[in-house]
Structures are given as C-alpha cells and as structure tokens.
Amino acid sequence: MKLIYKYSILALTAMLSFQSCSIEPELTDVYDERVAWSGEANVELSLNKFYPLIGQSYYSAHVNQDAYADLLKKNTPNDEVNLLILGSSTITPGANPLDNWSWGYTWIRHCNEFLDGLKTKGTGLPTEFYQRVEGEVLFFRAYVYFELAKRYGASVILYDGLNDGVGRSLSMPDEVWDFIAADLDKAAAQLPAIVPAAKRGKITKGAALGLKARAMLYARRWKASSDAVTALQALNLYDLYPDYKALFNQRRSEGTENKESILEFGFLAPNFTYSFDYFFCPPLDGGYAQISPTENLVKEYQMADGTDFTWNNPVHAANPYQGREPRFYASILYNGAPWKGRILETVVGSKEGYAVGGGTTSTGYYMRKFFDERLTDLGRGELTFYFMRYAEVLLIQAEAMAEQGQLSAGLEALNKVRRRAGFTRDLAATNTGQLLNLIRRERMVELAFEGHRFWDLRRWGLAPSVLNGTHATGVKITKAANGDLTYELVDADNGRSRVYPEKYNRFPIPIAELQRNPNIEQFNEWK
C-alpha cells in the first residue's frame, strides 16, 4: 500500500508547541513515502500530528463529560446534555453524543499507517530514535483502544496492522485488554524516562505506565494495575505538588517544576491558546457560564478538620462556605468568594445569581478550578492541561490494592492524597467495602471536572443507582433587606428525574458500522 503524507497546519502547530528547535523539515506541500522516512526531522514532524489526542481542547471535553454525571449541570435547559440525562433524547445505535467509534478507528488507522511505514521504510533510522517514536505511537494506539473500550465494554474490533478491507468480528474483551496492555508494555520499554525541557509534553516511560495502570483498573485487572503503579514509582520522578490550587494555575511559559505532572499538554500565547474561560466563566468576567457545579459535589468537600459537611448541622448551615477543606476554595466559586477583584454574588436577583434559563448559574455555584484568574482576554488561555497526574496514580493504586484486600497499602496511597489536601488525620477502614467507599468519594473531589466521574460510575456499576431516577441539587440564596442570607436546597433538574437505563453501561455499536460490516451484530441489550 503506497502512502502519501500531507503535513497539515495542525501538525505544524503541534511542532511549535513542543519547541523542537532542532527540527528542520524539507518544505514542500506533499511528501511521498521516501521523503517521509528519510530522516529524523520529517518523522518527528509526522509524529506530532498525534499529540492533539491528549489535550488540544484543554479541559472542555472533560468538563462536558462530567455534566453527564452528578458533578456539573449545564445551565441552558435545552442543552443536549440536559436533554439526554433527563430523557428528552436517548442513546440509540444511530445517535449517541458519547459515541467515539468513527473517531477511534480513524486514529487507529493513522497509528497503524505510521507503524507500518516505520517498519517498512524506516529501517535506516537510528535504533534509539526508531524505538522511541514507535513507543510513542504504540502509546497513542493503546489510548485510542482504551477510549473505545470504556464505551463499548472492550467489545471492539482489533486491528494490529493496516486494514485489509475485510470485515472483522468483534474481539473478546480479554483480547482487547491484552492488546492494550501489550502496546503499553512495549511502549514503556522503549520510551525514555525523562525528556529535555524543550520537549516537555512528549510521551515518556512514566506516561505509558500510568496509562496502563488506568486501563487495567477499568479491566478489573487489579494486580496488573498496581504493578504498573509500582513500576512508575520505581522511576523516582513523581510526587504530589505541594499546593493543589497552584497546581492548576501553571503556564508552560513560566517553566515551573512540577513532579505531579506525568503527561501534560502545554499552551503558549499568542500562537497556541484556548477559549475555555470564555465559555465557562461567570458572566461578569465576560464568560457564557455554560455549566455549574452541583450541590451533589459541593457537599462532599469536607470541613478542614476532616469531618463531613451537612446542612443538618446548624453551624454549617448558617455559614456553609466557611471552614471547608482547601480543595473546595480551589475548585468552587460560591456566594461570597473573592474573585478577580470583586466578591462574587450568587444570590437571587444579582447579575451572577441563581436563575433558571441559562446565562448564569442554575445551582448557585461556578467552577473555579481550571480558570485563570489573571486572564483578561478569555479567548487566550494558556494554563497547563494534565492528561495524567500523580494524584490520580495514587488513587488508582489505592483502589487496586483495596480490591486485592491489601487495606494498609490502599489506605497509605489514599492518605497521601489527603495529606496534600491539608488533612492531618488519616482515614481508616476495616474492610474492602469501607475503603472503596472512601476512595470513590476522594476521586469525586480530587479529580472533580477532570472527566472521570461518569466513567467511574459506569465501571463501578453504580451509574444506574446514582444517575437514574435521581435529581441534581443546587442552592438558591436569597438576601433580605438587612443583609441576612437564606439558603434553600433546590432541584436543579426542575422536577424532572434523571434517566440512565442499565444498558447505557455499554453503548451500542453505531448503525453505520453494522451496515458496512456483516461479520458483527448488535449487542443483545440493544437489539
């Protein structure tokens, strides 16, 4: 098969973002296969087209995914997320806003084309370089298969080489997880442990091990997951960043040393920025306030002393936003929060107050995490996106060890995360169930808005109970003439119950795939 490589603006943009000053590609509009594999510079340029997979849109996709769960609420009633979660629209083989089948197989084809070209035309490349770029693309292929497996229960089609045009049957889930693990094992073996500062954001050994730990957690291969964490920790490269709030306020241009970052995507103004703040910031910032945290999440932020917050406690209810743990203040904008030189007001009747209909908060809260308080032009954000950070790895380790019955090891990993959050009293558990409940709460809070919650609930088997027949909660605050505040818990779903049938735990194969491939059939629950 003869391949023609066209280098797009996207690839050039990605190249600039990595500041690879040593790359001097031969400039022309079209490269045939001989030129594409003629030297390291051109191969590197071709490789860069894969990097937008890990975070080009900053956190937008992750925040939107959390709105399908119980962490966030879209403020516009007719937003497609609200239509789905409230049952006005449904997932079908022909319509699924969370479908990624076509996306996945497009990228798998790109990965396999690159790997085939490397194998057949890249034999003259230096061995170390050859192995490194192969490892990077194996990482990306494993990542794409993992994203497919999350949605389709790992019942997908495996292509370990170029598609010969012959329809293939669905692979068994164990085959898919084996394939992902093998790609990541080989990637980890061939990738460097560290990269130069100018290459920050390139795939490393730690990234491959971290992704394997994440994938094996979904596969319920607990020992494989914890073993990957152990191998990552043996590199002695990673640790928790001391300040949770400051962790999410780092610009690539500032060059801050950050051992918590295992794999990141950096932005550099003025040429490579994002518009996240523009869509999600409060209206007085000039933002569209498309989404708001729910009280379902906010109540899970404990008091600073480690005790639970509850509206049934008169002291808590009188001043609900005082004395909470530091991650609350780093993640949530609430009534009375200092923000961009003003005090945020979410009381009914204020310009940023609680209302139904869109344009302002429908829950009484705004996000704070991921916003750049120093930003004046909301369309030019340049904070760092973390594809994976060490806190997630510790929570993976905690869960994998808990599932293996190793409570002490699981608790130690969990409490490391909590100590960074400012807690001085460690959590304890006497059985696996207790520990898993603690870990699930911690993931909800520590990883809030990072796109894990919806998928976590599905893989835990909890989505039908948490997301079906339930309601998101908000807080409606009214202010009396004398300044007294009244807090009222309200149904942020406006009296409608959420809908999540059991079959949503595995999405249907898209109808387009069924029509072109006679060797597969729809899952039983979707027939």
UniProtKB/TrEMBL annotation:
Residues 41-216 form the SusD-like N-terminal domain. The keyword rRNA processing does not apply. It holds the Pfam family SusD-like_3. One of its GO terms (cellular component) is cell outer membrane. It is found in: Cell outer membrane. Residues 271-526 form the RagB/SusD domain. SUPFAM superfamilies: TPR-like. Keywords: Cell outer membrane, Membrane, Signal. Residues 1-22 form the signal peptide. CDD domains: SusD. Belongs to the SusD family. This is RagB/SusD family nutrient uptake outer membrane protein. It comes from Sphingobacterium athyrii. The lineage of its organism: Bacteria, Pseudomonadati, Bacteroidota, Sphingobacteriia, Sphingobacteriales.
